[in-house]
Amino acid sequence: MSRPRVVIALGLSQTLAWGSSFYLPALLIGQMSQGVGLAAPTVWAVFSGALVISAVTGPRAGARIDRWGGRSVLMGTNLVFAAGLALLALAQGPVGLCAAWLLLGVGMGAGLYDAAFATLARLYGSEARSAITGITLIAGFASTVGWPLTAWLEHALGWRGACWAWAALHLLIGLPLNASLPRAQPAHDAEAVPQAAGSPSTAKTPEPMAPVSPLTVGLLAWVFAVVAFTSTALAAHLPGLLALQGATPAAVVLAGSLLGPAQVAARLLEFGVLRRLHPLVSGRLAACMHPLAATLLMLLGAPAAAAFALLHGAGNGVLTITRGTLPLALFGPAGYGQRQGWLMLPGRLTAALAPWSFGVLLAGLGTRVLWVSAGLGLSAVLALMAIRPRTSEGT
Q1: In a domain? residue 192
Q2: Cα distance between residue 343 and residue 347, in whole Å
């Protein structure tokens, strides 16, 4: 199977996975909470619990991908997602709801971006950067496609019917897409990663594991935790934050609509121009975007709402790629999946807490909460500045 076909298959399956899990509650939370007899904040808390489950699932899923490749793991997540969505459609109370989101949490931990990145690293080794960028370009439209589709399904079938429909899509579309991925040769040594791009003649010699600095790992984990916190918090609270800054409803809608295109445009830039740079350089540039955006919004107020959305979205778009390409460049492909799971564990935990904690800060500080997010963003920039690339990679 050619590399472009692998990228397209993974990109489409990732779009389905994100649209049917992470982005699902945004549109169904009201109907879902009524359907199971719980308050909406309680349902959001259950969703946060699912994100915690995804965090602890990630390292084990990554280790399995390191050893066996991503095909079987990603196919398994289609079954898990389908089962979780079916349980969600059947849920009548707290127990059913929690069971459903527990399964969906496992699916998110083993079936979203980090698993896809590990799959590509397992197949293509250090040459996986362009493929990683490619799947984020396609799956960057997950909310653009997923939210309207969920809204249409809910209108036509009700929220339970929408869950059944998403479950069917995993079995009818997601499972065949992931089944079409190349089989990776089993690794006899969990640290060795023989790449298999489709035939023995194209498989590459295993690349040795690079020395791992605990300081570098800690700095990267901090950066990814900050990015996860900020992006998740802003996804939940951007409309309210802009309204507090005095933006009109029309300006709030415009700013929100610019986030997706900004992310995709920045990823196109990464695919074209920035890929000539070390991922550390593009990561540093991207990490500067949110602090700059927050400063402009604080200084200029509502007139800077669109600029804030463009800068924040662009930075987040590139940083999503960086979380896959930078560990690959710093440490190499050996043991990539398990290491990626551990690196992203703090980020997934902060993402689970972000909507609630940022909401508390927003209620207490008002728009001054932007200085908090800007400060966190600057700390991520400093952390990236403190990291040095591998000698063989250059600067």
Answers
A1: no
A2: 8
